[in-house]
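Tutorial handout. Part one gives the primary structure; part two gives the three-dimensional structure as tokens.
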Amino acid sequence: MHIDDRDVRLAWFRDARVGMFVHWGCYSVAGRGEQVLNRDMMPLAEYTQLAERFKPDPDWAPRLAGRARAMGAKYVAMTTRHHDGYCLFDTKTDPFNAVNTGPGRDLVQEFADAVRAEGLKVGFYYSVLNWRWRGFWDPEAHPADLPRMVEEVHNQAEELMTHYGRIDVLWYDGCVTPGSITPGAFGYDGHPVEQDRGAFYRAEELNARVRALQPHILINNRSGVPEDFGTPEQELRVEDDAKRAWELCQTLNYAPGWGYIHRSLANKSFGEVVYNMIKAVRLGGNYLFNVGPDARGRIDARQGEIVDRLGVWLERHGEAVYGTRPEGIYEGASQGACYHYGMFTCRGATAYLTLFYYPPDPLVISRLGPAIRSAELLTTGQTLEVEPVSNARWRINGLPEEPPQPSPPVVKLQFEAPPYLLHYRGAEWLDGDCSPDS
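Part two.
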């Protein structure tokens, strides 16, 4: 039966905080990202040759799922079909799929089985857009394609929700009406169908059927209707509704390029990845870190190093991420208290300050209440001294002179109650006489 209480369905998602995104398909053979069909204006006859050369290793799925668990991910969302329309699953709607081409196997089944075996939640990415329909590019010349495009989406969604056991997340993408500009379609003079995208794809009907088949499922906001959670991409943009769930999805390289890239020369550092993760979590969101496996299904060294280091960091500092909430420290997406040191995540009366700017001893906690009872350098387990000083501040003494490791360390603070931002007015703080109103 349908679970109407969205908060109940979202409970695990809000606690998970970290997921792995996987962009993988026959485009991985080319090593030029997931949009090579459109960006290189590759004829379909040429593109289909990639599918015949797409030969994943027999053990790709267990390897990938194991890497996701070791990274600290609590769920994994993988492309079942991207904008090229190539289906990684066995579908009766289109012969351009992994069972009928090079792999000769249902890769979605292998993925779902492997992820569940690692105790992780299963997410399916599905592109509503299919570039291989001529009616998408020229709806006036191919009007008969339009209803067939919509039926294909509905039928494939039903297959995905029927044949692979419990699915925890449905991650739509590419929901644009025929004739619209799409990623990479520079120079294309489109003439969009004059209809709301949600109405064109019959999104409410589509998702009602999905929920009938998967009552516990979470659906993102990219099918033309808002559904359960938002999906800022690459750059963090918090929605106006502070109570709404969301996740930041992000690549290691700078966009574009979610699929496999043979050589990427502009990548984020490990510190940047942790920074972006904590920035999302401290504001109440999740962090979905993307990998683009090669044609064999392997994560390359560039991405693998970050995956492994993130797993080590989360193994030590996971309590500062999983199950945390913003509490009352942040108001909107503001920098917040102590931002010149780092960012807070909270669990009840416990706050975790991840340090991205390591201070010389001491560390000063200002603008936060209530009283701090204890402090610990979570990274090493070392107890720190807590000292109250003027202007309702707290001096944290005893940090090592040098950071204990190259990765961002975390200071764990125990407050008397859940922490909140202190408000004050006037210039008295210049004399050390500030008495903030909590």
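Part three, for discussion. The chain has a mean pLDDT of 96. The domain at 6-320 is CATH 3.20.20.80 (TIM Barrel).
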